[in-house]
Amino acid sequence: MPLERFTYAFRSTVENSVTKYYASFTDGEGNLQEAEIPREVYVALNDCRKHEQRQTRSDERHTELSLLSNEQLVERSAISPAPLDETVSLSLDLRAALPLLTDTQRRRFLLCHEHGLNHEQIAAIEGCSVRAIEYSIAAAKASLKKYFSG
């Protein structure tokens, strides 16, 4: 729903240090109606209006992004993707180097770097301390670095 097409409006006024809240709308015959409403209703309507505005903006952003080509999306991104042949080559090289790691290092390294879990999540899965996860992943990285550097 476009923002300019709300079917209601609301306002507040202060009279003699008392705040009053009003809602107005057009009835079925096209006549403008206004009624005093409780503060709770005013707050609920205001929250509803804000939610509608956020949803409309979200829809507009989604529509804009869905109309962009892959090239335009890449241009807008902060990080340039590596060429596909380099990515595939690195992935294959990394897969070849994984057997050099212990089972624990390999499992924890893959949970972190392939599945995107953080150290706390991996520690919960493994039933150990975060420090143990950090140590395993650091050791795995050191082994892989050694493998690739020489």
Sheet with the most strands, sense and barrel status: 3 strands, antiparallel
CATH top level assignment of the largest domain? Mainly Alpha
Mean pLDDT reading:
79
- Specify the overall morphology: elongated
Side by side, the strands of the main sheet go: 1-2-3
- The CATH topology of the largest domain turns out to be Arc Repressor Mutant, subunit A
Number of domains: 2
Uncertain ranges: none
Name the beta content range.
15-25%
Helical amount among residues, as a percent range? 55-70%
Q: What CATH architecture of the largest domain do you see?
A: Orthogonal Bundle
Radius of gyration: 29 Å
In short:
With 150 residues, the protein is an alpha+beta fold. It is 59% helix and 15% strand.
Secondary structure elements and their pairing?
Layout: E1 8-15, E2 18-26, E3 32-37, H1 39-66, H2 70-76, H3 84-97, H4 103-113, H5 119-126, H6 130-149
Antiparallel strand pairs: 1-2, 2-3
Structure description:
- With 150 residues, this protein is α+β, with helices and mostly antiparallel strands.
- It has two domains: 3-66, no CATH class; 84-149, Winged helix-like DNA-binding domain superfamily/Winged helix DNA-binding domain (Arc Repressor Mutant, subunit A), CATH 1.10.10.10.
- The protein has six helices and three strands, in the order E-E-E-H-H-H-H-H-H.
- A hairpin with a 5-residue loop joins strand 2 (18-26) and strand 3 (32-37).
- Helix 4 crosses helix 6 and helix 5 (119-126) packs across helix 6.
